[in-house]
Each structure stands twice: as C-alpha cells, then as structure tokens.
Design a protein that fits this description.
Layout: E1 4-6, E2 12-14, H1 53-63, H2 67-78, H3 83-111, H4 115-123, H5 129-161, E3 172-173, E4 176-177, H6 178-195, H7 199-227, H8 242-259, H9 263-266, H10 268-271, H11 277-310, H12 317-321, H13 327-349, H14 351-360, H15 367-380, H16 383-387, H17 390-401, H18 404-418, H19 445-463, H20 474-489
Antiparallel strand pairs: 1-2, 3-4
Helix pairs in contact: 1-7, 1-11, 3-8, 3-11, 4-5, 4-18, 5-6, 5-13, 5-14, 5-15, 7-11, 7-13, 14-15, 18-19, 18-20, 19-20
C-alpha cells in the first residue's frame, strides 16, 4: 500500500508508481484534500501552543463542579452511601478518569489533531463522520438543555432585580414562558459570542471562570458549615453496609466515569494545543483527583450540613443558593452559577459539535461558522421540551450515549495497541485511494464490525430491565468490548509509518 510522505519543502510525494500530486486548492498545503482540511481541522504546530497545566486544570475546575455533578453526588446519599463512602467512590472514579483522560490527552498532544481527524485513523477518512457526528449530536442536545437549565437561574435573578417581569412568566409560547425566552436568548447569545472567537477565547474564559467557581463553592460550603454550628451528618438516611456497600461504591465510581464518557472521547480537542505531555499530566492531576477530592468534601459539607441544620436532604446547590437571606449575596451566588454553566457548556457541548460539523463540510464551515450552526440547532430543537420528555432523555440521548463507550474502546485500541502511537498525520488529510487511512472507499470495515456488536450490547445494558443490576458498569463493559472486538478483527504485525503534521500545521491560536 502506498503511503503519503512529505519532502523537505512540505510537498506531497507517494511511494510507488503513482507520483501524481492531487490538485491543490488555493491557500491549502500541497497534498491535502480540500474535503478533509481547513485551518480548524489542521494539526496545531508544536510552537505557540497555549494550553498549559493551569489551562487544563481550570477546564476541570469548571466541569467537575457542574450542577449536574453535584446533583449526582448528592443523590448518592439516597442510595445508602455515607460521607466517607461517597468520597471513596469519587476518588476511585477520579483514579480511573486520570488514567483514561491522560491516555486520551496524550494522543492530542503528540499529533496536534482534533477528535474528528483522530477518528480517521481507525474509522477511515469518510468513516470518521460516524463517531464525530454521534459525539456532536449528543453535545448539541445537551448544549440546549444546559442553556435552558441556566436560564431558570437567570429568571430568578431578573425577577429579583425587576419584579415587574413576573408577568412574563404567565405567558407561554411553544412550551416556554416569555421570561424564559428572554433568559434563554441572552445566555445563548453570550455563549455564541465567546465560542465564535475560537478555542483561544474559550481557554481564556475557562481560566477566568475556574477560580470564581472554586471560591464560590468553598464559600458556600463554609457558610453552611458555620450555619450548622460546625457539625455534619455523615451518615445517609438508610446507610448500606458489607458487600452491598462495596458494590454501590464501585457502581458509583463507574457511573462517575460514565458521566465523562463524552469527554474522554474528544479530550484531544483541547490537548492538541497543550504545551507538552507533562502539562497534560499536571493539569489532569490537579484538576481530577485533587479537584474531585475538594468537590467531594464540598458535597459532604453542603449535604451533611443542611441535614444537621433542618434534616432536609438537598437535591442541588441551587436549593441552598435560593435560600440565601442576603439579596446581594444571592445575586452574586446566582451569577457564579451562570458563569459555571456557561463554562461547562462551552467545553463539553460546544467544541465537539463545532468540529464535527467543520469535519463534515470543511470547505464551507470553519470553527466559527460551525459553532454558530450547532448553536442554532441547539436552539431550534426547543430543548426545554426535550428536557421535560423522559422518553427523549432516556431513549434518544441514552441510546446515542450507548455508542460512546464502544467508540472510545475502538479508537484507543487502534492507537495504543495496534499502531502503538505510529500515525502518519499528513495522510489523514488525503482522499488518495493508496493512502493508509482510505481503507475501503474511506471507511474501515473492521471498525464497523467492532462497533455494531459492542454498541448493541451497550444498548441492551441501557434498556433491558434484566440487566439493570449491571447497568452501572455499562460504560466500562461497552468500552472493553469495543476494544476487544476491534483487536480481534484488526490486522496485526503490520508496520505503520510515523510522520508528524508540522508541514501542514497552523498555530494553535488560530483555532
């Protein structure tokens, strides 16, 4: 099979008889296909990368402290886990995540390519649309839903400042009050403006939001601890013990990893601009196990403190924020929650669909245009109606989510076990039939053969009541099966060319 290589001038050559270069579009590097390349999909050059360990730490400082994560961790009390058991479950999950995210992150640092392009290695230049669009589709729906949830916090703030707006809550259009439309639109515009300035703008926002969020939740925990007269209820209302307790701890740790099933898949979207692998390790270390320990302590203090105060089991930190008696402090806390939700939405639900759409039509959509398209889609699906429909959440988003574990297993097995990190980066951007990633008409049938059975099994875990007891471990099972099936069918013993993408790279700040 012929492999694409580059001479010292960055011009494409192919080994073998066929030495005809593809037709070059104006403004594109020699050898790349315009249907596979634009500046936002191009590899990032090693010089000028801007994501250091602090940038990656603040990424986690925002995402770990999301309201959804707090609701999940607080919910562990109702399952019979006490404070020390919840901390154990979160730290065990953090250890798994640290390993998985570091392995995923190293791929981006070494190659400089985003997830849709990374998927071309195992799925093929055309087949990569499958994992990219699945990941992007999940993110678009959750972008809209998270914006809607944040808009409800903004509703409270606006009514507090302008009581006359209360009347707008009584007029409903397409399932949402007029005040909700106003709040949702404001937050939608703010997020679009930040995202449309590119990844560097997102990095700066995350760096700003991270300390704000940490200080806000630490202050909230301190206030509750003081209000509870420095006492906490560490025990759950119906605490389990023995084998059942350990199964719940392992199940909670597994679910904690599953929450990040989307992020472990496309973490290279961020680490492609990381300054080094050591920056990834340091950022992940402080951002995952250490930050998650702080998160767990805050969960225990907020929940155990409120139980000590009045015996109430809160559902979310918003329950505490809404009861802050001081109006200025209430506004500051609510503003912090909005800053947090925007930060989480940008990193988890904006970058992936923007790059997926850019990968779908690179000649027409750069990151900015694709981000706007994905934001519009997140608006027109009327996400408040999706959120209020259990069928949509369970069957649509849950069904799509069942593909994430197998996709991760296939991509990771191909990169680490089959190719052993040897990637010809320039060849990922050519439709040359002789290219190593063209496979069969641009699709790797081996990846599809591994994806179908592992995804079907994952769906069974998600929807069959008889497998409910194992559903907590479904992400690990699905990822393991995806990796196993791919390893079984993939050719072995081949020699793979290793070529960096510096010749066709662009500065990370341009992304």
């Amino acid at each position: 099979m012929n492999n694409l290589v580059l001479n010292t001038h960055g011009e494409s050559l192919t080994s073998g008889a066929n030495t005809t270069s593809p037709k070059r579009d104006k403004g594109l590097p020699a050898g790349v296909s315009p249907a596979l390349y634009n500046h936002d999909l191009a590899p990032t050059s090693k010089e000028g990368r801007t994501w250091g360990s602090y940038s990656l730490f603040t990424l986690w400082a925002n995402d770990v402290h999301s309201l959804g994560n707090y609701a999940f961790a607080i919910g562990l009390f109702t399952l019979g886990l006490g404070g020390h058991q919840i901390l154990m479950a979160l730290l065990l999950g953090a250890a798994f995540l640290f390993v998985l995210l570091s392995l995923s992150g190293f791929m981006g640092t070494r190659t400089g390519i985003p997830f849709p392009v990374m998927s071309r290695i195992s799925f093929g230049t055309r087949g990569a649309q499958i994992p990219a669009l699945i990941r992007g589709g999940v993110a678009i729906a959750w972008f809209g839903i998270q914006t809607y949830l944040a808009s409800m916090v903004l509703d409270v703030m606006l009514i507090t400042l302008f009581p006359g707006l209360q009347s707008l809550k009584e007029q409903v259009v397409l399932g949402l009050p007029l005040l909700g439309w106003l709040s949702f639109s404001i937050l939608w515009v703010v997020q679009v403006l930040i995202a449309c300035w590119g990844m560097e703008s997102i990095r700066k926002y995350e760096a700003f939001a991270g300390p704000v969020i940490l200080l806000t939740f630490i202050a909230l925990a301190g206030w509750i601890f003081y209000s509870a007269k420095w006492t906490l209820h560490w025990s759950a209302p119906f605490e389990s013990s023995g084998k059942a307790m350990w199964l719940q701890i392992l199940g909670a740790a597994s679910l904690w990893v599953a929450i990040y099933g989307t992020f472990v898949l496309n973490f290279c979207d961020f680490t492609r601009a990381a300054t080094s692998s050591s920056a990834v390790v340091k950022g992940n270390f402080w951002g995952i196990p250490i930050n998650m320990l702080i998160f767990g302590l805050i969960v225990v203090i907020l929940t155990g403190g409120q139980l000590a105060i009045d015996g109430t089991l809160i559902q979310s930190p918003t329950d505490i924020v809404q009861n802050i008696p001081n109006k200025p402090l209430l506004m500051l806390a609510s503003l912090s929650l909005l800053i947090l939700t925007i930060a989480v939405n940008l990193m988890a639900n904006f970058v992936a669909p923007a790059l997926a759409l850019a990968n779908l039509m690179p000649r027409h959509l750069n990151f900015r245009r694709a981000a706007l398209v994905s934001a519009v889609l997140g608006f027109v699906i009327l996400p408040w109606n999706l959120y209020n429909s259990p069928l949509v959440i369970v069957y649509f988003l849950g069904g799509l989510g069942s593909f994430l574990g197998p996709l991760f297993g296939i991509v990771m097995a191909d990169y680490w076990l089959i190719r052993k990190q040897r990637v010809n980066v320039p060849a990922l951007y050519t439709h040359d039939p002789a290219g190593p990633y063209h496979y069969r008409n641009g699709i790797n049938p081996k990846a599809i053969q591994a994806l179908i059975p592992s995804s079907l099994i994952s769906l069974l875990f998600a929807f069959l009541p008889t497998l409910q007891s194992l559903s907590q471990f479904s992400w690990f099972i699905a990822a393991g099966l995806g990796a196993l099936f791919y390893w079984m069918v993939a050719p072995k013993g081949l020699t793979y060319e290793d070529q960096d993408g510096e010749a066709i790279s662009v500065a990370s700040a341009k992304h």
